[in-house]
Amino acid sequence: QVRLVESGGDAVQVGGSLILSCEISGAADSRYCMGWFREAPGKAREGVALLSTDGTPTYADSVKGRFTISKDSTKNTLHLTMNTLNLDDTARYYCAAGRPWEVAGTPNTICRLQRGLFADWGQGTQVTVSS
After folding, report:
1. For a tag site, which of 66, 85, 124, 131 has the least CB within 10 Å?
2. What is the pLDDT of residues 14-28, one digit of tens each?
3. By the 8 A CB rule, do 6 and 79 touch?
């Protein structure tokens, strides 16, 4: 069982920065895909950033160049550094963990920034950006 607890959400002005953290406990280790998702009022939950099992990051187009996903393995904590925040970044942000998908016919596995891959979720932390 994986337990994820997010923190760091806050109210900030346009152009500001925040660092979100996700404390990971339980069975999640380097074999897990780790992701950040967000959900704005009236919108579907969307993937923001992914950290694959080999440490490769992937970002949604809307946050490329502004957000950075990272993991502190010594503290088993996942971070999302968010810069140049804009009004569209207002949402509840969720940390998620999941086993990678197997690639058919190969011994390989793959992480995808897709909600269906992630079985374990935190409760979320609110980010509100205002002008």
Report:
1. 131
2. 999 999 999 999 876
3. no
